[in-house]
Amino acid sequence: MKIEAVKDKSLFYMLVFILVLGTISSGVLFTVARKMAPIIKKQKAMASETAILNAFDISYNKSNIVDIFRKNVRSRSAGDMTIYNSTGGLRAIELEGSGLWDVIRIVVSFNSSLTKIHRVVIIYQEETPGLGGRITEPKFLAQFKGKDITNGIRIVKRVRNPVNEVNAITGATLTSKALEKIINTGIKGIKRMTNVD
Amino acid sequence: MSIKRIVYTKTYQTLYNGIWKNNPVFSMVLGLCSSLAVTNKVENGLAMGLGVTFVLVASNMFISLIRSFIPSKLRMIAYMIIISTFVIIADQYLKGFYPLISAALGPYLALIITNCIIMGRAEAFADKNSVLISIVDGFANSVGYTVILVLMSVIRESMAFGTILNYRVAPAWWTNWVIMAIAPGAFFVLAIILWITRIKARVCQI
């Protein structure tokens, strides 16, 4: 029985074909997913560790990120939040929240007395390139250094109170507001954690 | 074999058609979504081009290999299963080994599944030709696609950020054209490329 004669006429052949193709495809993807899962998990962890080292101004090379992190950073978890403490006395938290198009993941570091922001580092964002995407620019992020967190942070069109306000990105109001919400949620969280302590 | 004879071989004709004469972007007007979306930076355009190359060559090869067994009523479903398998493999590989590029491409890597070029070549070529020539066709079309992506990326990145592959190329007095980093800029650049290639095609009658 030739396949050419059967393949377009036999329902049974079509069902078997799709079943076999689907099974092979699923098998290949399952194998690939299993092999890649630990590698992808390691990459995500390394992205967080790199961001935390950057937030603490700790130098590292691509080859020694994990060692430098273990040597210089201690972590402490409470509930759903983890506080990272550097040997230099700084503290940091990793935060995630909704941006305009996708989640924004950041690390915010604070001084030891938890009164001022030391640095904001963006780990992941999918905001509009050239607009919201500019939250990764050093010039924008440098504004956060030294800002007082007593009453939270404000990202505004025009700075009137430089104590806790920074300039938003022109044309990226929604992303700026999203980032402000994420940082302020983190500030509330870390204050709650340290008050409990 | 002399140069004249090489020109008339099926391999050469397939390469020539895929890269130039029937270029998927400016001649067949396919794959426009990704051409517009990921060409804001050269590294993104290159990465997308490489991703499409892998998927197109692999899917063409596999579809050609099993073309005798694919029922005609199920060929689109079969193409989708095969193409999506290779796309997911490419996605996982980038996430694992090149996470920054994976992040930069975002959802557009997964959207290669919907790229008309890949389905188009599967239906128009791989389903009807042998494995080796299907591989050549896949390679040629993906090279043609990548070349246009890189050209668009070079124009857009240099005007939008003053850089190419993150190396400063614009002079100090250059003011970045932010519009080139977003969708309208992509449309302008693509339209100009289509316009120039259409004029050239008419003049040279390619």
Would you mind describing this structure in some detail?
The complex is a heterodimer of chains A (197) and B (206). With 197 residues, chain A is α+β, with helices and mostly antiparallel strands. Chain A is 43% helix and 21% strand. Chain A is built from five helices and seven strands, in the order H-H-H-E-E-E-E-E-H-E-E-H. Chain A has helices spanning 3-6, 11-55, 65-72, 138-141, 173-196; strands at 73-78, 81-86, 91-98, 103-110, 117-124, 154-156, 165-167. In chain A, the strands form two sheets. A five-stranded antiparallel β-sheet of chain A has the order 1-2-3-4-5, with helices on both faces. In chain A, helix 2 (11-55) packs across helix 3 (65-72). In chain B, helix 2 runs parallel beside helix 8 and helix 5 packs across helix 7 (116-126). Chain B has helices at residues 3-7, 10-21, 32-37, 42-65, 75-97, 99-105, 116-126, 131-160, 183-204; strands at residues 163-164, 167-168. Chain B is mainly α and 206 residues long. The longest helix of chain B has 30 residues, at 131-160. In chain B, 68% of the residues lie in helices and 2% in strands. Chain B has a two-stranded antiparallel ribbon. The A-B interface holds A 3-4, 7-8, 13-14, 17-18, 21-22, 25, 28-29, 32-33, 36, 39-40, 43-44, 47, 102, 124, 126, 128-131, 133, 171 and B 40, 68-74, 77-78, 81-82, 84-85, 88-89, 92-93, 95-97, 99, 103, 106, 160, 178-182.
Give the key terms.
heterodimer, A: 197 residues, alpha+beta, five-stranded antiparallel sheet, elongated, B: 206 residues, two-stranded antiparallel ribbon, 9 helices
